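Table 4 source record.
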Amino acid sequence: MLGRFISGVGAGAATVVCPIYIAEISPPDKRGIYGALSQVMINAGILVAQVMGYFLSRDSLWRIILAFPAVTSILTLTALFFAPETPAWLADNGNLRLARITLRRIRGPDADIRQEIQFWALEEEDEERPLCAPCPSVSSEKQGIVSFLDVVTIPKYRKAVFAVTAIFVAQQLCGINSAVMYSVAILGNIIPSGAALITVMVSVINLTVSKN
């Protein structure tokens, strides 16, 4: 139970953090594609796990299935130490120089990053403007940071909060996660010889639909 709780917390955090990180480091014109790839890769991982289960669920080969996610988790944890803070986060926290260096490192030496850092320059000007000029116009004012408490209590955010919450609740209550994770056990009572293969086919369809 403790292991399932820890893995659940980790999976939940990754579901939230990874799309945000990907969105902040992706080129603006490809942000949607890279954001969608997060869900595609989750479905690809499910397919890999089920294919391994189909071929390796016998004798002592089950240890390979157990070791595979352990190894990938260690590699992921190691890679995190080399993952830079996102340029957007660095810029929001006032470190514009490191933000530019990090963005150049991500985009490559020949990429044009002037358009991406334009907004950071406007923020820097807004911070310096009160010292040397009148107050900025409404169009150039920096939008204030919205806290978690603001999102919950301010009425104008309630529709967005309700929509996002409803999507996640519906995903859990519809039972699709249980159907995917325990499909072999569910189908095993109906089609004992083909339950595992049907599960793999469902995952292939799931991945194909996600890519489209």
